[in-house]
Amino acid sequence: MHDPQHHPGFPPKEFYILLAGAALLLVVHTLGRFIYTPLLPYFIGDGMLTPQQGAAVATWNYLGYLLGALLAIRWHSIPHIRVLLPLALWTHVLTTLAQTQLVDPSALSITRCLNGIANGVVFVQVPALILEWLVTRNRASLSGLVYLGVGVGLLLSSALVSVSRDWLHGPGRWWPAALFSLPLVWWGIRQLLGLEIPVTSEDANHTERPTKGLVNRASLPLFLSYAGAGLGYILPMTFLPLLASLTLTAEHWLTNGSWLLVALATIPSPWVWNTLGSLMGDLPALRLNFVVQLCGVLAAVLIGGTFGIICCGLLVGGTFLGTVLLTQRIGRALQPHQGPKLSAALVALYGLAQVAGPWLTKMWLSYGGTLGEAFGIGAAALVFGLLFSLLTRLPTTQ
Description:
By secondary structure, the chain is an all-alpha fold. The chain contains 16 helices and no strands.
């Protein structure tokens, strides 16, 4: 036992576990999912995909993510996670390697769906596993820092595409993501699978589950709040670059720079919201998060132009991961004996909202609406989420 481990700051064990979790989220969520956003124009330019095929491939990946989260609901216990998590991570590696060889859009769609399933499983199980472990060490307030990997990964994925754009072609453009994934998965999985988490509490509480459902009077407002958050954030995160290109001149720096702005705002956001949750409580911090995010979407709708798009990029980029980490912790406080299962259900709901958002936007545009008006759907969804966050109540401590 070393006394220095009890000094303020990170004890070494927590630091390495959070770093491993952040690395694994970086791998599946940014080298798996988000790297496709900057890669797509090059795939189209190389003649590998048409814009329509590119959109279909992306949809299959989103659908896979939803299926992965649903799998994580079914197999949610710690013993299940120890089996399913490495399987999902190596599925990510193998599908990413396969993507370096695939030109056929149908084969690529199937592979991206499998990659999305792996992403959904890992995005649920890594934070859930780490949160359960931190709870046993009375360090649950650190849990949100695992999402730092997503912000760093957004910049890394963008850099990998930019650096390799002139010397890679077609499916070969996937190689940087594949090569970065291999060592990070190997190292991260070694750290997490050795965590000691008591399984007996789950078995002891098994008889309670039928009387205390996953969605009950206490958790329903949180589920509805999170549905609003998922629909509210996906519209600006999907269409902000398009809004910039439609409303600003072709030479304007925001036409290509709005996504970079979002990425930069994302990097510190898990630390900011994790700290605010510790200082003011997770539930008040979540309500503040909704207000800030709503201001970002309204800036794009009501102000528009350069200032509106900058505000939207910074405020939405700086809040959406905070919504995730705060909601996950509140969910565990409401259902302490089925934290990983509740986490999976919340991510599945978020994934469903992500699929619904772009579909609603397309429907709105097909009926003659504008993209700016479609952002109003996102604002309304965030108001809905804020209202239900106000109705959410944490259990009083015994």
